Input
Amino acid sequence: MKEYVFDVEGMACAMCEAHINDAVRRVAGVKSVRSDRRARQTVVTAETLDTQAVMEAIAGLGYSPLGVREQEAKPSFWARLTGRKG
Output
């Protein structure tokens, strides 16, 4: 599982985060998504991902996706606690 970190300009409130999350969640392959207006980022977890489709989904809402970087997903708190993957 990988995390894709999108830098996003234009998020001003919790509703902006929710709109982006809803749109990105519809992109094929997305397992989870979380947006943070303070960090100006949207983080998507997926095995494989069409990053262009995510950027288009964000831009289609009027926000500005500035770029993306890929990193290995960090295990969840529960996975770390139990020693399980995921």
Summary: Residues 59 and 69 are 17 Å apart (CA to CA). The chain has a mean pLDDT of 91. The first helix runs from residue 14 to 25. The chain has one domain: 2-82.
